[in-house]
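Reopening this one. Same input as before:
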Amino acid sequence: MWFCKSPTIGALNRFWNELNRTENISYDADGLTFKKIFYFWLPLAGTWLMMSVEGPFLAAVIARMAEPKINLAAYGVSFAFALVVESPIIMIMSAATALVKSRNSYLKLRNFTYALNFLITGLMLVFLIPHIFYFITEKLIELPHNLAHLTYVAVALLLPWPGAIGYRRFFHGVLIKNGLTKRVAYTTVIRIFSMSATALTLYHFSALHGVYVGAISLSTGVTAEAIAARLFAAKIVKKILSEQSETDDPEYFFIGKFYYPLALTAMLSLGVNPIVTFFMGQSRMPIESLAVLPVINSLVFIFRSFGLSFQEVAIALMGEKGENYLKLKNFALAVGSAVTAALLLIAFSPAAEFWFETVSGLSEELARFAETPLMIMSLMPAFTFLISFQRSILVAANNTSPITFATLIEVSLIVLTMFVGIKYLDAYGIIAAISAYMLGRLGANIYLFKPFFKSVNKLQE
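Same output, byte for byte:
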């Protein structure tokens, strides 16, 4: 037909052929090079980088709407609650990368994912019962009523968030396991486009509160990404389902035992955010602290994203005997150092002022308030690369329990630092929070060194 020869249709056909092309990655120690690691990692880094832009973009939109201070605060609190609810499912991508090796393992982990998605969505509905929600936000955290109400509606608008996250992370894990990292990046392009189009449309053509615009945009984007992930994984899923299992497939008990420490790790990591919010609500300058925290976190997340994306890369490329350990370690060291240097350059230069005022749209007062916390947090990308590599080794060695203990240490240090900083040192809420996050992560990194090296030796035996 004539339309099959049009430039647009031809471009779409080439794009679809590229999606269906598998990537040949050599996993042996001689075949894996720095360049191959880079090209395997780059689409995943791009995925996390695109997601890291999501926060600053929405914060910038909200900051330019009516009552920016309270709407930014409500956005930060509601997003923290959504992250807590989704936390049990976040590590399913690492689990899929490590465990999906056959038809049966795919089906079992898929069923496990669906059950967990159903559970966390139900928990979010329970949290939205007004008596429960307002008891937590107004009585425990001591948020003002108007801030708590804005947060309630925003959390309700984020109801699709946890299930969509679990769904797309499972299929992302399947794609990564099969070397199709570019497809993961394509799904995130769809997410960012859907999110930004929704946000800009509501910004220009609605009278909604800024926090509602942010919540609707997040839900729209992640739902679109989940659908795209399933479509882009369709061919590889069909291939997996058509093959007979040639490996020893994990039973549900093994999956639960393997995944439980990972889920608990994510729950502890993200569950500490409402605790931080609670302490910040009782600190000096609480509204200002709550307003700038999501803006600072969004900027730092851009640089942390390079390290966060490395965990699944190391799991997939480590090799059965850990033969690629040194090459992956050197890659993490080189890229992690470069990314950390870039954030340090921004934090200690006029670029920080430009980011907070011009890009994020903060007032001059809030921008000044955010500069010192950013300086304190500027080493976080290095800590993120380190913990991602440590965790990848432990997951590859099926030794996930130390990850949970490290997170317990991290959370304990965060809570202790917040308590001392707010109750005894009378610190600004944002200074206490950023210092707590840094000390907590450093403690987790230090604890993991011993089990990390044991797991390296186990893999190389």
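So the earlier flakiness isn't reproducible anymore. For the record, The chain has 20 helices and no strands.
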